[in-house]
TrEMBL record:
InterPro entries named among the record's database cross-references: Mfa-like_1 (IPR025049)
A Pfam cross-reference name: Mfa_like_1
Range of residues in the leader sequence: none
Region span, Disordered: 327-498
Biased composition (Polar residues): 468-479
Entry coiled-coil feature ranges: none
Name the record gives this protein: Fimbrillin family protein
Length: 498
């Protein structure tokens, strides 16, 4: 009797089991939201922990289903993408447009800022997954390969992002006691890589063979308020650049007088490598002004003592000197014109640049290239540099993202809060290789200080002579937290179909 009762309900039990099994199978094919976090952004090295992305930094993340044994954007299947924003200063990413996937194993490509990626489907015509990058963009990417996700385990920690652009800092260090006020009107370099440059995602920007026809200028409004010692500086981000002719130019106002223009041919052997920071400093010394170049890994701290373990000794090169500079207000002769004297390049310059490995756009010969791993930061709003007790020991903002932009002058060179490229025009990239029409005085070596007209940069005949060889100046880190805005476009990714 009991057996017959059980047999009566057996079809119902079997039907319920079949429905449950089908529901489980269907659930495995449902799309779910993948969650991401970012360990941070680093330059060329992996021996140190990366710094978290600053709050507000944007990322675009694309998922691919691998076809072969290794990741290959030209053959792998595009499954969708999403955009995210860094929050909390600890690597947390909140979704702006969610990436939806089904359970499986994927390769995840990330880029910051969240620039548009062209032709991710590789539908022919143009190369797959290309990105267009210009000056002023702190572009960094990463590939997080072979990560398995499911609805029960949807979290992915992205691998460190690597930078693909270079950072420039322009600084002025007046002579103490002889100058009462300074104001920078502009500073920049000519003959920079023509922008934009297109590159396949997660590859180096192909700048070799690209025209060097852009001028990059930082407006005076972007320079920090001069501190108690009248030091001021500003920064921007530029595309990498192969070696070639270019010029430095800074317009400065001293003691409220007419602006003085300091112009100099730069060494043709100098290249700008990605993930590297180049600081051009005018250091006033007596009746002369020295131009000093300091090179460091982007966000690398300066070696200032034995307790600063892991810091880098900067490459410091004396590029040359403007001799017989006359600043109104020093002599009391009533003059309102600044005499910039004559430019004398360092005769050993090319040899020094070659010795320090500064000639390659790939940065292979740089002193720290073999160490692989200097932490950096990108995006965000914290620009409050806290002074340290020695050069290069400042607490550089970028990790807290608190939005503080106060200037706190330190007790040594390099502690100023340096404004960076925030998308508001500070890079002022002007196409064409011409900065103006000035004929730089002193080009004939005859002491002429009149400014005549010419027709382009690079036409001056700058006399060469022996510089004074001073290479003692080292400026510390400044402004490492440029928040490079990017449009966050696109709708939420559709569930990928098998």
């Amino acid at each position: 009797m009991n057996c017959k009762g059980m047999i009566k309900y057996l079809p119902v039990v079997l039907l319920l089991c079949a429905c449950t099994e089908n529901e489980l199978l269907l659930k495995e094919h449902e799309a779910f939201a993948v969650r991401f976090s970012a360990s941070g952004i680093a330059t060329e090295v992996a021996t140190r922990a990366a710094s978290p992305l600053a709050d507000g930094a944007t990322l675009r993340i694309l998922a691919f289903w691998r076809v072969g044994e290794s990741p290959d954007l030209s053959t792998d299947k595009y499954m969708g993408e999403g955009t995210y924003r860094a929050v909390n200063g600890n690597g947390t990413l909140e979704a702006v447009n969610v990436l939806l996937l089904r359970a499986g194993t994927y390769d995840f490509y990330a880029l910051t800022p969240a620039l548009a990626v062209a032709n991710p489907d590789n539908d022919g015509g143009s190369p797959a997954c290309t990105v267009s990058v210009g000056h002023g963009v702190d572009y960094a990417t990463s590939l997080t390969a072979g990560r398995t996700v499911s609805e029960a385990s949807p979290a992915v920690v992205l691998d460190d992002l690597g930078r693909h652009c270079a950072k420039l800092i322009f600084a002025l260090q007046p002579k103490a006691g002889n100058i009462t006020s300074v104001r920078i009107e502009s500073a920049g370099l000519s003959n920079m890589t023509h922008a934009p440059v297109e590159a396949v995602l997660c590859t180096q920007l192909p700048v070799a063979g690209i025209a060097q026809s852009d001028a990059v200028t930082i407006a005076g409004s972007e320079f920090s308020t001069p501190d108690a010692d009248l030091k001021t500086s500003a920064a921007t981000v530029v595309l990498p650049r192969t070696a070639g002719k270019f010029q430095f130019r800074m317009n400065a106002v001293f003691n409220g007088m007419a602006a003085a223009e300091f112009v100099a041919d730069m060494p043709e052997t100098l290249a700008f490598a990605p993930g590297t920071q180049y600081t051009f400093s005018l250091k006033m010394k007596g009746g002369s002004v020295q131009l000093i170049l300091e090179v460091l890994p982007w966000s690398g701290s300066v070696m200032s003592g034995q307790d600063n373990i892991g810091a880098f000794t900067p490459v410091v090169i004396h590029i040359g000197t403007w001799e017989h500079v006359e600043i109104p207000g020093e002599t009391g002769n009533g003059s309102t014109t600044v005499g910039t004297g004559q430019w004398r390049p360092n005769p050993e310059l090319d040899a020094e640049i070659g010795a320090f490995g500064l000639t390659s756009v790939g940065g292979e010969g740089l002193p720290w290239a073999s160490e692989q791993g200097v932490p950096g930061e990108t995006g965000g709003g914290n620009t409050d540099v806290r002074p340290g007790d020695s050069w290069g020991t400042e607490d550089v903002p970028g990790s807290s993202g608190d939005g503080n932009t106060d200037v706190r002058p330190g007790d040594s060179w390099g502690t100023e809060d340096v404004p960076g490229s925030s998308g508001d025009g500070n890079t002022d990239v002007r196409p064409g290789g011409s900065w103006g029409t000035e004929d730089v005085p002193g080009s004939s070596g005859g002491g002429n200080t009149n400014i005549g007209s010419g027709n382009s940069w690079g036409t001056e005949n700058v006399p060469g002579s022996v510089g004074d060889g001073n290479t003692n100046m080292s400026s510390g880190n400044s402004w490492h937290t440029e928040d490079i805005p990017a449009n966050i476009g696109g709708d939420a990714a559709d569930p990928a179909s098998e």
